[in-house]
Amino acid sequence: MPNSLPRRALIRGLLAAAAIPLAARHSLAAVPEAAGPDAAAPIVALNDALSAIMKAGAATPFPARYQSLAPVVARSFDLEGILRLVVGPRWADMPREMQTALLGEFHRFTVASYVANFDDDHGTRLEILPATRAIGGDVVVETRIVSPKADPVRLDYVMHQTDGQWQARDVLLDGTISRVAVQRSDFRHILENGGPLALIASLRKKVSALSGGTLS
User: Fold this and answer.
1) How far apart are CA 104 and CA 107, in angstroms?
2) What SS3 state is found at 121?
3) Lowest CB count within 10 Å: 10, 55, 69, 140, which one?
Protein backbone atom coordinates (compact mmCIF):
# COMPACT_ATOMS: atom_id res chain seq x y z
CA MET A 1 0.00 0.00 0.00
CA PRO A 2 1.26 3.54 -0.65
CA ASN A 3 3.25 5.02 2.21
CA SER A 4 1.44 8.36 1.76
CA LEU A 5 -1.80 6.94 3.19
CA PRO A 6 -2.53 7.84 6.83
CA ARG A 7 -1.78 5.03 9.25
CA ARG A 8 -5.48 4.83 10.21
CA ALA A 9 -6.34 4.07 6.58
CA LEU A 10 -3.74 1.34 6.53
CA ILE A 11 -5.12 -0.25 9.68
CA ARG A 12 -8.65 -0.10 8.30
CA GLY A 13 -7.30 -2.22 5.46
CA LEU A 14 -6.92 -5.01 7.99
CA LEU A 15 -10.58 -4.76 8.88
CA ALA A 16 -12.45 -3.78 5.67
CA ALA A 17 -15.33 -1.30 5.59
CA ALA A 18 -18.51 -2.94 6.87
CA ALA A 19 -17.46 -3.13 10.50
CA ILE A 20 -19.72 -3.92 13.44
CA PRO A 21 -19.09 -2.43 16.91
CA LEU A 22 -18.18 -5.21 19.33
CA ALA A 23 -19.33 -3.22 22.34
CA ALA A 24 -22.89 -3.43 21.10
CA ARG A 25 -22.79 -7.23 21.28
CA HIS A 26 -20.94 -7.97 24.53
CA SER A 27 -20.99 -6.77 28.11
CA LEU A 28 -17.74 -6.04 29.92
CA ALA A 29 -16.66 -7.88 33.04
CA ALA A 30 -13.78 -7.97 35.47
CA VAL A 31 -10.47 -9.20 34.07
CA PRO A 32 -9.83 -12.84 35.06
CA GLU A 33 -7.23 -12.99 37.84
CA ALA A 34 -5.38 -15.81 36.08
CA ALA A 35 -4.67 -13.64 33.02
CA GLY A 36 -1.74 -11.64 34.37
CA PRO A 37 0.95 -10.65 31.86
CA ASP A 38 0.63 -14.01 30.08
CA ALA A 39 -2.37 -12.83 28.06
CA ALA A 40 -0.31 -10.00 26.58
CA ALA A 41 2.79 -12.08 25.81
CA PRO A 42 1.67 -13.24 22.33
CA ILE A 43 0.87 -9.64 21.35
CA VAL A 44 4.23 -8.42 22.63
CA ALA A 45 5.84 -11.00 20.31
CA LEU A 46 3.55 -9.97 17.44
CA ASN A 47 4.36 -6.27 17.88
CA ASP A 48 8.09 -7.06 17.96
CA ALA A 49 7.74 -8.97 14.68
CA LEU A 50 5.67 -6.19 13.11
CA SER A 51 8.27 -3.61 14.17
CA ALA A 52 10.95 -5.74 12.52
CA ILE A 53 9.14 -5.96 9.17
CA MET A 54 8.37 -2.23 9.27
CA LYS A 55 12.07 -1.49 9.72
CA ALA A 56 12.89 -3.88 6.90
CA GLY A 57 10.44 -1.94 4.74
CA ALA A 58 9.50 -2.34 1.12
CA ALA A 59 13.17 -2.64 0.19
CA THR A 60 12.95 -6.18 1.59
CA PRO A 61 10.95 -8.44 -0.74
CA PHE A 62 7.39 -9.12 0.36
CA PRO A 63 7.93 -12.92 0.52
CA ALA A 64 10.88 -12.47 2.90
CA ARG A 65 8.85 -10.28 5.25
CA TYR A 66 5.95 -12.72 4.95
CA GLN A 67 8.15 -15.68 5.92
CA SER A 68 9.49 -13.89 8.99
CA LEU A 69 5.99 -12.97 10.23
CA ALA A 70 4.09 -16.17 9.38
CA PRO A 71 5.18 -18.31 12.38
CA VAL A 72 4.53 -15.43 14.81
CA VAL A 73 0.99 -15.00 13.49
CA ALA A 74 0.40 -18.76 13.82
CA ARG A 75 1.42 -18.62 17.50
CA SER A 76 -0.30 -15.34 18.35
CA PHE A 77 -3.72 -16.09 16.82
CA ASP A 78 -6.16 -18.95 17.29
CA LEU A 79 -6.75 -19.01 13.55
CA GLU A 80 -8.85 -22.17 13.55
CA GLY A 81 -11.02 -20.80 16.35
CA ILE A 82 -11.47 -17.54 14.44
CA LEU A 83 -12.33 -19.38 11.24
CA ARG A 84 -14.93 -21.49 13.05
CA LEU A 85 -16.57 -18.30 14.33
CA VAL A 86 -16.43 -16.64 10.93
CA VAL A 87 -17.69 -19.58 8.86
CA GLY A 88 -20.33 -20.64 11.38
CA PRO A 89 -22.33 -23.91 11.13
CA ARG A 90 -20.95 -24.69 7.65
CA TRP A 91 -17.57 -25.44 9.23
CA ALA A 92 -18.79 -28.68 10.84
CA ASP A 93 -20.23 -29.85 7.50
CA MET A 94 -16.92 -29.50 5.64
CA PRO A 95 -14.67 -32.54 5.11
CA ARG A 96 -11.51 -32.33 7.22
CA GLU A 97 -9.31 -31.90 4.14
CA MET A 98 -11.41 -28.90 3.08
CA GLN A 99 -11.13 -27.39 6.57
CA THR A 100 -7.35 -27.82 6.41
CA ALA A 101 -7.12 -26.19 2.98
CA LEU A 102 -9.31 -23.27 4.05
CA LEU A 103 -7.35 -22.78 7.26
CA GLY A 104 -4.10 -22.69 5.30
CA GLU A 105 -5.39 -19.97 2.99
CA PHE A 106 -6.82 -18.03 5.94
CA HIS A 107 -3.40 -18.10 7.59
CA ARG A 108 -1.75 -16.84 4.39
CA PHE A 109 -4.34 -14.07 4.06
CA THR A 110 -3.91 -12.96 7.69
CA VAL A 111 -0.13 -12.79 7.38
CA ALA A 112 -0.23 -11.02 4.01
CA SER A 113 -2.69 -8.44 5.41
CA TYR A 114 -0.28 -7.54 8.21
CA VAL A 115 2.75 -7.42 5.93
CA ALA A 116 0.94 -5.13 3.47
CA ASN A 117 -0.33 -2.80 6.21
CA PHE A 118 2.91 -2.59 8.21
CA ASP A 119 5.27 -1.92 5.31
CA ASP A 120 7.22 1.12 6.51
CA ASP A 121 8.69 2.54 9.71
CA HIS A 122 9.01 6.35 9.68
CA GLY A 123 9.26 6.41 13.47
CA THR A 124 6.08 4.44 14.14
CA ARG A 125 5.85 2.81 17.58
CA LEU A 126 3.68 -0.14 18.61
CA GLU A 127 2.76 0.14 22.29
CA ILE A 128 1.07 -2.24 24.74
CA LEU A 129 -1.19 -0.23 27.05
CA PRO A 130 -1.37 -1.14 30.75
CA ALA A 131 -5.18 -1.13 30.93
CA THR A 132 -7.04 -4.39 30.32
CA ARG A 133 -10.69 -5.33 30.19
CA ALA A 134 -12.64 -8.55 29.82
CA ILE A 135 -15.31 -9.80 27.44
CA GLY A 136 -16.80 -12.79 29.21
CA GLY A 137 -13.85 -15.06 30.00
CA ASP A 138 -11.61 -13.41 27.39
CA VAL A 139 -9.11 -10.63 28.04
CA VAL A 140 -8.67 -7.59 25.81
CA VAL A 141 -5.05 -6.52 25.39
CA GLU A 142 -5.03 -2.86 24.37
CA THR A 143 -2.36 -1.59 22.00
CA ARG A 144 -1.66 1.71 20.31
CA ILE A 145 0.04 2.58 17.03
CA VAL A 146 1.83 5.89 17.38
CA SER A 147 3.01 7.69 14.25
CA PRO A 148 4.88 11.04 14.22
CA LYS A 149 2.58 12.42 11.51
CA ALA A 150 -0.84 11.10 12.55
CA ASP A 151 -3.09 10.63 15.55
CA PRO A 152 -2.53 7.42 17.56
CA VAL A 153 -4.62 4.42 16.48
CA ARG A 154 -6.02 1.88 18.96
CA LEU A 155 -5.75 -1.74 17.86
CA ASP A 156 -6.85 -4.19 20.56
CA TYR A 157 -6.70 -7.98 20.71
CA VAL A 158 -9.32 -10.22 22.30
CA MET A 159 -7.29 -13.02 23.94
CA HIS A 160 -8.80 -16.46 24.52
CA GLN A 161 -7.18 -19.18 26.62
CA THR A 162 -7.21 -22.79 25.42
CA ASP A 163 -5.27 -25.52 27.26
CA GLY A 164 -3.35 -22.86 29.18
CA GLN A 165 -2.30 -20.94 26.06
CA TRP A 166 -3.44 -17.39 25.28
CA GLN A 167 -4.13 -16.55 21.64
CA ALA A 168 -6.02 -13.74 19.90
CA ARG A 169 -9.60 -14.50 18.82
CA ASP A 170 -10.41 -11.05 17.41
CA VAL A 171 -8.88 -7.66 16.56
CA LEU A 172 -10.68 -4.42 17.45
CA LEU A 173 -10.08 -1.07 15.75
CA ASP A 174 -10.58 1.87 18.13
CA GLY A 175 -11.41 -0.66 20.83
CA THR A 176 -14.78 -1.62 19.33
CA ILE A 177 -14.76 -2.50 15.62
CA SER A 178 -14.50 -6.27 15.25
CA ARG A 179 -12.50 -7.83 12.44
CA VAL A 180 -14.27 -11.16 13.02
CA ALA A 181 -17.64 -9.48 12.46
CA VAL A 182 -16.41 -7.98 9.20
CA GLN A 183 -15.00 -11.27 7.98
CA ARG A 184 -18.14 -13.14 9.00
CA SER A 185 -20.23 -10.98 6.67
CA ASP A 186 -17.72 -11.20 3.82
CA PHE A 187 -16.89 -14.91 4.06
CA ARG A 188 -20.45 -16.15 4.56
CA HIS A 189 -21.62 -14.24 1.50
CA ILE A 190 -18.97 -16.02 -0.58
CA LEU A 191 -19.83 -19.39 0.96
CA GLU A 192 -23.52 -18.93 0.23
CA ASN A 193 -22.80 -18.22 -3.43
CA GLY A 194 -19.91 -20.58 -4.20
CA GLY A 195 -19.10 -22.80 -1.24
CA PRO A 196 -15.67 -23.47 0.34
CA LEU A 197 -13.80 -23.63 -2.98
CA ALA A 198 -14.99 -20.13 -3.84
CA LEU A 199 -13.79 -18.83 -0.47
CA ILE A 200 -10.39 -20.48 -0.93
CA ALA A 201 -10.10 -18.92 -4.39
CA SER A 202 -11.10 -15.51 -3.01
CA LEU A 203 -8.48 -15.66 -0.26
CA ARG A 204 -5.79 -16.68 -2.76
CA LYS A 205 -6.73 -13.74 -4.97
CA LYS A 206 -6.51 -11.36 -2.02
CA VAL A 207 -3.09 -12.71 -1.01
CA SER A 208 -1.84 -12.20 -4.56
CA ALA A 209 -3.16 -8.62 -4.59
CA LEU A 210 -1.73 -7.78 -1.15
CA SER A 211 1.68 -9.12 -2.15
CA GLY A 212 1.77 -7.37 -5.52
CA GLY A 213 1.70 -10.75 -7.24
CA THR A 214 4.76 -12.10 -5.42
CA LEU A 215 2.60 -14.67 -3.60
CA SER A 216 -0.07 -16.68 -5.37
Assistant:
1) 5
2) coil
3) 55
